[in-house]
Amino acid sequence: MAEETKEKVVKAPKEKKVADPVAASMDLATQIMIKRAQELGVETVFDRAESMKPCNIGIQGTCCKNCAMGPCRLPLTKSVEDGPDERKGLCGATANTIAARNFARMVAAGASAHSDHGRGVAEVFMSVAKKETNDYKIKDPQKLIAIAPYLDVATTVEVDGKTVDRDLDEIALEVAENALNEWGKPSGELRYLKRAPQPLYERWKKLGVLPRNIDRETVEIMHRTHMGVDQDYKNLIKQCTRCALGDGWGGSMLATDLQDVMFGTPYPLQSEANLGIMKQDHVNIIIHGHEPILSEMIVAAAQSKEMIDHAKTVGAKGIQLGGICCTGNEMLQRHGVPPAGTFLQQELAIITGACEAMVVDVQCIFQNLANVAKCFHTKLITTHPIAKMEQENVVHIEFDEHHAMEDAKRIVKMAIDNFKNRRAEVMIPRQKATQIAGFGVESIKYHLGGTFRGDYYTLNDNIINGRIRGIAGVVGCNNARTRHNEAHIAIVKELIKNDVIVLTTGCNGIACAMEGLLSPETAAVFCGPGLAEVCETVGIPPVLHLGSCVDNSRILLAATEVVKAGGLGKDICDLPAAGSAPEWMSEKAISIGHYFVTSGVYTVFGLHLPMSGAPVFQDYMYNELEKIYGGMWDCEADPIKHAHKMIAHIDKKRKALGIDKARDRVLMDMADRQKLEAM
Amino acid sequence: MSRLVAFAAIQGGYNIVSKVEGQYKKALETYSATTKVGFPNTAYYLPVIYSLLGLKVETLEDMKKPLDFARGLLPPHVKGSHHLPYLGPLLDAGMAALFAFEIKEALRYLNEPDFYLHSEDIDQEAGKIWLGAADDTVFRKRGVEFVDGSAPGFAAIVGAAPNPEIAKLIVEEYQKRSLYIFLAANQNGTTVAEQLLEAGVQIGWNTRIVPFGPDISSAIFALGFANRATMAFGGIKPGDYKKVLLYNKNRIFAFVNALGDVNAEWAAAAAGCVNWGFPTLADTDIPEILPTGICTYEHVVANVKHEDMVQKSVEVRGLKVSVSKIDIPCAFGPAYEGERVRGADLFCQMGGGKTQATELVKLAQMNEIEDGKVEVIGPDIKDVKAGGSFPLGIYVQIAGREFQADFEPILERQIHHLINYIQGVMHIGQRDIAWIRVGKAAVDKGFSLKDIGVVLHAKFHQDFQKIVDKVQVTLFTNKADVDKLTKRARDEYRTRDERVEKMTDESVETYYSCTLCQSFAPNHVCTVSPERTGLCGAYNWMDCKASFEINPTGPNQPIEKGECLDTVLGQWKGVNDFIFKASRGAVTHYNFYSMIKDPMTTCGCCEAIAATLPTCNGIMTVHRDYTGETPCGMKFTTLAGVMGGGASSPGFVGHSKFNVTQGKFLVGDGGLLRMVWMPKSLKEEIKDRINKRGEALGYPNLYDMIADETVGITEEEIMPFLQKVGHPALSMPSLLG
Asked: Which of A436, B55, B311, B470 has its CA at a distance of 20 to 30 angstroms from the CA of residue B622?
């Protein structure tokens, strides 16, 4: 002790602050690996979060660096709060304008990430439709036929006066053309908007926020937020709405749909989660990023006999794939490949010393991975032309759909060949949990009544009768500014304890899986009695994993299905539902949040939102938006309060629907039956 | 623990499908693939498979598709831990089991043609107590009771009660609530059907206690009955499985009672029934499924005490039923309507040829009668020896501010079924040809003639409260009194008949709608005019008028017929406007007097169906009791299948038997003189009226000119006959114009 103190005294000025593993994460595997990293002298995000604090003004959203007269900083100080708010940038921009412009640029960045992902998928789908690739094909023709009408593509044709099924290749080609067109068509509106409940579509139309095409709305945000253009926060938010809707009901939804068509629509399956899925005696390949275009091929390559045999020749027992972030979720949903961890665990996967290759594509990839990889034998392979790294140890193997399998095999082979190069002592934490994942709009419907009676009404009925209090969508990232996974888990547990069923995507899904919340056995332990009973009846976990962050579009469609099934109002904003992103970090989360809000969902973010420095603007976002869209933003860092804000909103909606009291058992006589509407 | 149910039901599903696949394989080895298979006299093939999958199973080889489909539905088994969701798979496994059951029963009809008795009644002496699938005649006859509400639903009881007394207790409670009771399966070889027989309960369609079969697979007949209702009355197309099942959930109030230990096959069957929204209540300790959703309320309820079974079942199904509380010593309700008093059970009788029995309902002034007064003038049952008979006059006086003389025959007609509702008492006929048989069991319970008065007083008040204020009943049993009443009654009958016969469509400005069957056929609207009684035969214009007075917001609404748009075909503007609204826009117009041009819609519960016979330049009609072939190439049941569910089908029209001889019967197409073929039984039933009507039309021997099945069952066969007798249709203008 004395020695340590002495050491500290001597070295203190130079020693970098390191994270306290227990304070940094609630997950034991993560704690173990942070400690391990520190033992090995490898710096991680957790340590950097200790040594670098966030900018005080940026966090308020009131720093403007959109022109070279700035950056202009407009912090909200005590004197501003007390007196008249006379803060201005050099050009005169108010705190409201600056915060709204910054917010808008986050929406634009987030939407463009999802939508560019979607475009990539659509381009691959086009080459499938044109039969230019052998590696991808249409795996789920049913889904293709199901989405075709929403893209104004006919699925039947008239032949000699008879209606017959249209040729699938023809449908595929037209779907591909119309889908790709959505990014840049010169006129009209996004076709998918009509999938929303009718009153919601009408509301958007009346407000003039129907996106015209996916790309244009992003470009327009960049224009409007340029120095000296749009200086009315309300008008800026209107454009944010267009752009975000173009993400949720456009780029993201198209990405999800076309991925399902090509790679299969997910159905429930069993898998595991956390770093413990890596195997000491296997070649471990971790795939990190967002697009399944890459991972689908690597899964296929890794499962091929050729590669497995090759792995055996180097002394491995096999090949273990694992995912990080949403690529992990994509592989999980369709193939049961276990996620090795959430966003914040990406460096730790390498630090196990057992990661032969980490293959990355786009979004949420730490540049520090390259620095970590340097300390081990791990090959860090970038695959996307828009996402490279400056460090020299990074291998770039560009992945293109025309040579997809070839590229995938090359990557897998590189990983296998690297097995023998393991250096430091391997240390894989034992922690992993079993999960049931693979839910989606279609599979939930099936599981609510089977082939013949599958219908969201089963869910609605149990919401109406009060067994289920409401629905929550809890999604989003991790953020090293808060204890890893703690808010995710605390909020989800509080919700299910209060009989709120949770739909999850992204890193929240992985976090819940790691904590065992995606296992059906959880229901009896953590849920309120009503939700537990429903989970037991259907055989589901109380938290349903719907996939990656583009798959938030599945939540929009699930909500729409709930509206259509009846009994819970006419619009998404009537539903006893709320959204949450407890540990948000990326700009994508802002875009997602805004399309949920403007689709009618009360959406609460954790940590902070970059608008606290502009109280008038913040009030507009937290309160006024509800009158316009039926949904609004909110922010609450305390997980329990956060959950109860959502529950209070759910209760408000239950009251409005008149389902806040116990439902009477209605006994029908003949006269009642005569009054029934025809089907 | 739904997981355990899922586990068992999925296992059960595998067992059942595998066994039936084996039986099917064996059948293919025994018979040729083209061998005809099916249930007797039905146009709905294997009705569950047909209604849900749209597949017509007519031959042995046709069974392959649905059986393969059932195999494909079987989900993976449920794991012990970290299992996948199982509700959907559970319901699918149940459905697979039910498809297999239906095939299994069809194979039984093939392998053991005499296993089931094709009848409405059992033949206990011959040991034939299992009735198997309801044929379409039974289905339509009984189906109408579901449509009009006289049967609120059905209880499917599987297994056996611990003893016959409990079986009787449960079943009689259902009977009192007017439900049908369908019996299937056994428990260690014992069945409820056999227990009821042991306890002296009459079983068969007539007492609403239907012994389908001794195996669990025979429970499929209950579902086949329900699904035919969706197609015949609901107009839902075969293969539209979602609608078929939701129709059942919303409109057919059925449920399962599982008596005794539940095995995996029962679990599969119960899971299958949940698809229909039919819950299961068990008397044993099985895992419960309480959340709602697929069923309206709970799905599986366990540990139900036998004395609570009936009340709990109707509550779980969400059904409101009333028990007629009438202060008589015998049980009372529609379930006893069809019960017989056979020779051996007979204690005494009135009427029926041996003595005179007459019924008369008359309007009385308010101060003239005393409400609730029931007087027996002359000897009562206690005064006669067993096997005796005596005359009876039932004289009912009714006073009410809204009561009119026109309502007298309507209330009088109720006497028939109201007396029949008394357990152990049977009523046949009406007016001055009534016949009442009283069973020993009723007399043992203390039944007296006064109880008839009690029943009529109570039920007239209950059913006609809007028009009835006071009811007094006098029962005469001295010959002189009865003869005096009979003489007076006959004068009354004559006056009434003349009044009704004189009434024409032109003589009234108001017709009445009848949407009674919208509980089952949501788009169907009948319009009843004086010369076109309702096609179900149950409601004439006067009935509808009374019904409206009794219940002004009920299913019979007055329609101002308004401007006549076509005098020949019988079309009125007011009627069109009304039906457009009442059919929820599905029907814009129809003609009263034509079957060729936009005929009236049919709900599926019509008594008879007329069809064109172009070669003969005439028409035919067939009633639902006739199961044979007809010259139009279709049996009644096929015809009804083609046109039920509220559709207007040119070339065909549903009508009542009585309507055939009404003045306006299809006059737009040439009227009764077009009639070239009728089943013999129908012809005989309405012989007097055909003669009378024929005479009025100038063909006094029309009756003899109409061909029947003894002449032929094709147009070609009957044509020479028509030519020989010089049938008027042959010289009429071309039927199809």
From this structure: B55
